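Narrative of activities, Objective 1.

The group set out to show that a structural description can be obtained from nothing but a protein's sequence at a throughput compatible with the screening campaign. Below is one input-output pair from the validation batch, recorded exactly as produced.
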Amino acid sequence: MPVLACHHELIIVTLPGHDGKPVEDDSGTFAGLTRSVADFIADRQLDAAAVVGSSLGARMVLELARRDHAGPVVALDPGGFWRGAERTLFRTTLQASLALLRGLSRTHMLAPLARSAVGRSVLLAQLSAHPWQLDGTLVASELEALASTPTAAALIDDLATGPEQRGPGAAGSGKVTIGWGRHDRLCLARQARRATAAFPSARLHWFDHSGHYPMWDEPAATARLILEATGAAA
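Output recorded for this entry:
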């Protein structure tokens, strides 16, 4: 974020139900959260702004492109392209992880484990290519936030059982850039082919040393990609 802030005014969106924000009636669904973001953009006349999202947020910005969002779109390891057993893998592993995190949070063990290299290696094995290298305070904050999100379980179920993400970007939408970690164990790398098939005009960028969250594993490369995709000097 500090790198991006040198080139752009940043607007960081907190979704309903996340980080203590009130839950709206449809906040437990992908469609509902996307509606909330689309309303936020429309209310503030940000139709030409660049939008960047990761994971769930990446799928949301792809959906905005499909709905004719005029600004550049950057989607990092988007969800929504699971098929068959991949859906079961996504649902069962995330629901089990959520239950574990909530149990650890209740016993006040989550933060100490997240600050330990060994603990991070266990807790983030599915999400990071090298979790032991991540900042423990950041990881603790992220995992505590997930554990306390009241809509998390409903969202996992909705994403796992709902329809696959559709494309392409609308005729008037901005250019789409998709970034994908080669070591993503949640949204598997082979799903990138489905994403680019749905959005055939999109540019696909591979993060060679990244898992599901390239801004964790390759922050400098992620910032460069976003700056390039949004027309700023890298």
